[in-house]
Design goal:
Distance between the termini: 65 Å
Organism: Pseudovirgaria hyperparasitica
Number of strands: 2
CATH topology: Rhopdopsin 7-helix transmembrane proteins
Subcellular location: Membrane
Strand order of the largest sheet: 1-2
Number of helices: 10
Radius of gyration: 23 Å
Structural class: mainly alpha
Membrane topology: Multi-pass membrane protein
InterPro entries: MFS_trans_sf (IPR036259), RTA1 (IPR007568)
Number of domains: 1
Order of helices and strands: EEHHHHHHHHHH
Protein name: Putative RTA1 domain protein
């Protein structure tokens, strides 16, 4: 904001970037507190380690789409917490606040995209006949929703952070809220459809694809499914929290409660990335990640994605036996 601020000393400043802790009170800073160093360093370490592991697993198992989504998400998370560490030294600097705000707002959208990429492959491993929608439909639908959410959050964050008047600031916040609401709705629908498919796969066991029976019975596969569910739930909780935080505004008590932020933002996303990394799909699919892949219709338009995937699956299942 460009409004002038009169300090207790009588000095007038026109830009918060002119402030330091020596001359300005903390209650006019970007945060009304100094971000905790230990907590933010911890999250930097978590995301940094997971980033390296994602690169290793992604290259080793050739899970390219999943790896790209996770790497983008983790890099943004890491940069966001670096921004918070920089704000500890000077909570008035706009660039550091912008680094924190934009990165931590849009980062989880990439993590959600990685989760969405897994569902279609999971359906192929059980049998597309058990699903209400085709595997490719889930991916296209939810990745598209995620992209919409990402664009809205990025645009809203940029507008709110660069606003020169209250009206523009409020508009930016509202756009960010719309993006986060879209993410919450998308995750909720995703969880409901996952639950519906899980129930169908449980109820109609005789219709499961026998080609992947060994894979489905393995411990790592079951752990992978649980980890994916936990990651989805934690990202959902975080997104609901951020909607409430932004709805009240940057100057609200909720937005300036660091312990709550650490619990519902940092911890939730840390749990998610640990699950998505430690229970990596490349490991869980036991070399059959590509077999669970699917394609859009061929140029000739003669084959559906499910038949392509099932043919590949049957030819590659020998690796499991």
């Amino acid at each position: 904001m460009s409004d002038s601020i009169t300090l207790p000393s009588g000095q007038v400043i026109t830009d918060l970037d002119q402030c330091t802790l020596d001359i300005c009170p903390i209650d006019i800073a970007r945060f009304h507190y100094l971000p905790n160093v230990a907590g933010n360093v911890f999250f930097c370490i978590v995301f940094g380690v997971c980033l390296l592991l994602q690169l290793f697993f992604g290259i080793k198992h050739k899970t390219w789409g999943y790896m790209v989504a996770m790497v983008f998400g983790l890099v943004l998370e890491l940069l966001g917490y670096v921004g918070r560490l920089l704000l500890h030294n000077n909570p008035f600097l706009f660039d550091n606040f912008l680094l924190y705000l934009i990165c931590l707002t849009i980062g989880p959208a990439f993590l959600s995209a990685a989760i969405y990429l897994c569902l279609g492959r999971i359906i192929v491993i059980y049998s597309p006949a058990l699903s209400r929608l085709k595997p490719r439909t889930y991916t296209v639908l939810f990745v598209s929703c995620d992209l919409l959410s990402l664009v809205l959050q990025a645009l809203g964050g940029a507008l709110a952070s660069t606003a020169d008047d209250e009206k523009s600031n409020d508009l930016g916040i509202n756009i960010m809220i719309a993006g986060l609401v879209a993410q919450v709705v998308s995750l909720l629908v995703f969880m409901l459809l996952c639950a519906d498919f899980a129930w169908s796969a449980h109820k109609r066991r005789s219709e499961r694809d026998p080609a992947f029976a060994v894979l489905r019975s393995s411990f790592i596969w079951k752990a992978f499914l649980i980890g994916l569910g936990v990651a989805t739930l934690t990202i959902f909780v975080r997104s609901v929290y951020r909607v409430a935080e932004l709805f009240e505004g940057f100057d609200s008590e909720l937005a300036n409660n660091e312990p709550l932020f650490m619990a519902l933002e940092g911890t939730m996303i840390s749990i998610a990335v640990i699950c998505l990394t430690g229970l990596h799909p490349g490991v869980a699919f036991k070399g059959n990640y590509a077999a669970g892949d699917f394609k859009f219709r061929t140029k000739k338009g003669k084959k559906d994605v499910e038949s392509d995937a099932n043919s590949d699956a049957q030819s590659q299942n020998v690796e499991l036996r």
